[in-house]
């Protein structure tokens, strides 16, 4: 869902996590995906 561009609050609502802390515990971002997103932003 993160890769699809949904925000934290949207994902928490869909997944049923009651706190952002619990959502972060189960969200695992890949470094290469973060670099690709930064490259898109910077150009």
Concise overview:
By secondary structure, the protein is an all-alpha fold.
Helices, strands, pairings?
Blueprint: H1 8-15, H2 20-26, H3 31-42
Question: Which features would summarize this protein structure in a list?
Answer:
43 residues, mainly alpha, single chain
Explain how this protein is built.
The protein has helices at residues 8-15, 20-26, 31-42. It has one domain. With 43 residues, the chain is mainly alpha-helical. Helices cover 63% and strands 0% of the residues. The model has no long low-confidence stretch (mean pLDDT 88).
Shape: elongated
| Overall mean confidence score, pLDDT | 88
Q: What's the helical proportion of residues? A: 55-70%
Strand-residue fraction?
Answer: under 5%
Our count of domains comes out at: 1
The end-to-end distance, rounded to whole angstroms, is 23 Å
Give the ordered list of helices and strands: HHH
The low-pLDDT segments are none
Structural class: mainly alpha
What characterizes the major β-sheet? none
Number of helices: 3
The beta-strand count equals 0
Rounded to the nearest angstrom, the radius of gyration is 12 Å
């Amino acid at each position: 869902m993160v890769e699809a561009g949904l925000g934290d609050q949207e994902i928490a609502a869909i997944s049923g996590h009651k706190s952002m802390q619990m959502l972060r515990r189960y969200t695992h971002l890949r470094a290469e995906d973060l670099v690709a997103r930064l490259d898109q932003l910077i150009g």
